[in-house]
């Protein structure tokens, strides 16, 4: 009987977040949200595109040409942003304003371009650093999300297994010890 109760409680605890979120009673913390859909831009897409932009610029391509060529091979959302930026630059917008047409996830890459443009430095090395920074930041975010998920799992496991442990191990042991002491 006790195993059945434990199984029911465990099932309820595991199923609760999914059922409650469908009903609107509970939602996941922001750091545990799934990544955006494929039409959005992930950090990995931006880091990959930044590396490709750096390589294209190192090979002697112009900025507009590099943006367009990388857009041809980039993920759909990243390609869309790169085409917008290339079009804005072609129309004579300043670098900072052109990168304003891209999504917020492009901030390190945009900063690298804006700083390199303002100083007159080659932007390829700065882009590689921006890509590295993006990947490291995403790795830290995933580590934190994994850590908080582990912490969130402790409570249901404790609520399920601690009473079962007490009922199957501690109480019988105490009963035997008390019975042997009384006789």
Map the helices and strands.
Elements: H1 2-23, H2 43-58, H3 63-73, H4 76-90, H5 95-98, H6 107-119, H7 124-182
Care to describe what's here?
With 183 residues, this protein is mainly alpha-helical. It has a domain at 40-120. The chain contains 7 helices and no strands. It starts with a helix and ends with a helix. Mean pLDDT is 79; it is low at 12-29 and 31-38.
Low-confidence stretches: 12-29, 31-38
Structural class, from helix and strand content?
Answer: mainly alpha
- The gross shape turns out to be rod-shaped
The rounded Rg comes to 27 Å
Largest β-sheet summary: none
Q: Span from first to last CA?
A: 30 Å
Helix content: over 70%
* Strand percentage: under 5%
- Mean pLDDT, nearest integer? 79
**Number of H/I helices:** 7
Please provide the count of β strands.
0
One letter per element, helices H and strands E, the order comes to HHHHHHH
């Amino acid at each position: 009987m006790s195993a059945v109760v434990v199984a029911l409680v465990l099932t309820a605890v595991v199923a609760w977040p999914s059922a409650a979120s469908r009903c609107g009673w509970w939602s996941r913390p922001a750091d545990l949200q799934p990544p955006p859909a494929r039409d959005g831009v992930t950090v990995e897409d931006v880091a990959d595109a930044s590396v490709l932009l750096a390589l294209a610029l190192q090979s002697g391509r112009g900025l507009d040409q590099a943006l367009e060529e990388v857009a041809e091979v980039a993920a759909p959302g990243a390609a869309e942003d790169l085409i917008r930026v290339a079009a804005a630059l072609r129309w004579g917008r300043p670098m900072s304003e052109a990168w304003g047409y891209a999504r917020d996830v492009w901030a390190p890459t945009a900063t690298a371009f804006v700083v390199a443009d303002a100083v007159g430095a080659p932007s390829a090395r700065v882009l590689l650093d921006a890509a590295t920074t993006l990947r490291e930041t995403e790795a830290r975010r995933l580590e934190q999300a994994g850590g908080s998920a582990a912490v969130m799992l402790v409570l249901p496991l404790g609520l399920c297994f601690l009473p079962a442990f007490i009922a199957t191990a501690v109480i019988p042991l105490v009963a035997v010890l008390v019975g042997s002491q009384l006789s």
